[in-house]
Amino acid sequence: MLGLEARMNKVLKPIHAFTNGIIKQRRKLFHATVKNLEDFSEENIYFNTNQRYALLDTLLASEARNQIDEDGVREEVNTFMFRGHDTTASAVTFIFFVVAEHPDVQQKLYDEIEASRPHSQYTVKDYNELRYMDRVIKECLRLYPPVPFIGRTVSEDSWFADRFVPKGSMANVHIWDLHRDPEQFPDPERFDPDRFLPESVEKRNPYAYVPFSAGPRNCIGQRFAMLELKSILTAVLREFRVLPVTKRDEIVFVADMVLRARDPIKVKFERRNV
């Protein structure tokens, strides 16, 4: 009605073309390999090993069973490819900012990295063993969640305390504020990776910490995102020290779908002399 749809479609055209190209290529390989959908299981269909298959293969199998249409496949692929781009960039920015601010934490991270596999390529299992790094990243995501708020449609008439919320209402969850609840996170502005020790996590409400949302609408790429963040942090810290430039009180946050700062957040990378 306002002429915006044509402009939006023009912007989306190259994005959809890129995604459709990937889907088309994978669909061709999928149908050339899978002759019988009944045989499509957790076994890797390309290498005949007992590994989990790719997300796109799962979607293509559902498409072949008429459980999802072509547009649905594209929407899911768009979500995985593009929603994970800005959010991961935001997370990386604030993780390096926090690590630069806390040299003691940075040294512990470096020590853990060197103690794990100092002279060889990391595997997924190796990244999963970086327990301290896991806690550091989670605490960074608590303080600076890449998606600071989310919206959900209320699916049935509900009561929240003494307030009635009718079906169809829009509920906004302010993750930024939720992660600063002093009852769940005492002294909430203080950076403390030990908040995510198993014994600490057990004491908290499971929905007090939701950087990837929670429930059936949670982020489908959260494990991949954590692996990305660990691989980036590991690669950088093995070669560089991260030194602070921008100070916390200089950051002006911008209200957006993804957490951003008004001005660039800067750190300094100093090569390690090891």
UniProtKB/TrEMBL annotation:
Transmembrane segments: none annotated. It comes from Culex pipiens pipiens (Northern house mosquito). May be involved in the metabolism of insect hormones and in the breakdown of synthetic insecticides. The keyword Oxidoreductase applies. The keyword Metal-binding applies. InterPro entries: Cyt_P450 (IPR001128), Cyt_P450_CS (IPR017972), Cyt_P450_E_grp-I (IPR002401), Cyt_P450_sf (IPR036396), Cytochrome_P450_Monoox (IPR050196). SUPFAM superfamilies: Cytochrome P450. Belongs to the cytochrome P450 family. PROSITE patterns: CYTOCHROME_P450 (PS00086). Its cofactor is heme. This is Cytochrome P450. The lineage of its organism: Eukaryota, Metazoa, Ecdysozoa, Arthropoda, Hexapoda. GO terms for molecular function: metal ion binding; monooxygenase activity.
